[in-house]
Structure formats: C-alpha cells, structure tokens
Amino acid sequence: MTPLDQFGSSEHGLPVGNRFAERDQVRPGSMGKALPGQCIAVVDEDGAPVAPGTVGFIASLPPPDATYALGYWNNPEAERAGSGAASGWIVTGDLGRQ
Question: N or C: which end of the chain has fewer CB within 10 A?
Fold first, then answer.
C-alpha cells in the first residue's frame, strides 16, 4: 500500500497533499502538491519566494473563501510571526523545499 501524505496546520487546514495523485506518481518523501484553489510557496524570512531546492518557510495565500485562523488568543508575538512579511501570506513556521 502506498502512503498518501499531506501537509496542513490547525491554522489553515490541509492545503497540500498527494491524495489525488496516481499511486505510481507518488514520490517517497514528498508531501504532494498544492490542492486545487491553493497558492503555496516556500519563502524566506522576508516573505520572498526562494529558489527551487532551497529550504525556507512553507507559506500559503488562501483563496478568498477559505477559512483559517485570524490570530492567536492573547499571543500577539505568534500572530505577527504567523502572518509572514508579505501581505496575505500565512506562514506557520514549518520548513520545506520545493
């Protein structure tokens, strides 16, 4: 049986996965691709996309109708860190590479 990985967070749900891939297209160690309607990037500390193969922070621009956390209860520091430097990005602090 082929494991079908996905990536997500409590702040934003599951925007990345390989559950729609054909079983023979699943690469070991890959969490998959952005699901339909999702815009995912790997960014640096300033919110700028990094070159393919470079480790950075996984970030998403959720579609307008998406539901995600608007902040952290009584924790403005975590709220600032999670918003990312680029307007609209949700950055949960998880590292990845494309």
Answer: N
Whether residue 19 is contained in a domain is answered as: yes
**Domain membership of residue 83 as a residue range:** 6-96
Q: Identify the CA nearest to 59 among candidates 32, 27, 88.
A: 88
In a domain, 34, yes or no: yes
pLDDT single digits (tens) 9-52: 766 677 777 766 666 677 777 787 887 778 888 988 888 889 99
Please give the backbone phi and psi of residue 2, each rounded to the nearest 5 degrees, phi first. Answer: -90, 125
Residue 1 lies in a domain: no
Report CA 26 to chain centroid distance, whole Å.
19
In this prediction the pTM is: 0.71
Structural domain contains residue 51: yes
Structure-token pair, residue 38: 């999702």
